[in-house]
Amino acid sequence: MIKEAYNSPIVTATDITTDVWVQVIKKLVAEAWKVTYKYDNFDAGIDYDFVILEKDGEEILFGWDNWFEGEVQSSEPKMIEIEQMMNQSFKRGESQNLTPGLITLHRKWQVENKWG
Q: 63 in a domain, yes or no?
């Protein structure tokens, strides 16, 4: 579960271009964030994608599709860090790919993949 750092609310950045979305994930993995879940169905990276990164008990969720492109969900302080790392300011908005129902589905698959 996303840890609310510094009692900060969880925010969702939307409309992130595919290239920037991929670069954010790569840079965080290079900073020792661990991929704890990656969507691996036949359309992964083509029509849809979903990634969960974790470090020190904190999670960052990544959703992507070919219509809305990338979304990132994290605590507000972490989002600010990501924006600074990328030298970008992301639009905050309502998610299309990081909705509660989709997050629940991916968490179920995450557990199944871990224990299945």
A: yes
